[in-house]
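**User:**
My hope is that you can spare some time for a protein that puzzles me. This is the protein in question:
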Amino acid sequence: MSDAAHDYHSGDQDISEQVATFSVFGKMMKWGSLIIASMLLLLVIWFCVGAGFFAGLIPAVILLAVGIFFLRSPPEAAH
C-alpha cells in the first residue's frame, strides 16, 4: 500500500490530450459566443424593436464579420 504512493512523480505525466482538449474547448467557447451574440442581436432588433428582419440582419452580419476579424488566430510563424 505504501509503495503505490511512491510511484507518483510530479511532472512526469503526458498532458498532450489535456492540452488539446483545453484548446478545442477554448475555440468552441470563443466562436460559440460570437454566434450567440450575433443571433441575439438579430432577434432583439427583429422582434423587440420591431424594425424588421433585414434591419436586424445587417447589424448581426456586421457583428459577425468584425468578430471573425478580431477573434481569428494569428498566422503560424514560419521556421
In short: The first helix runs from residue 2 to 6.
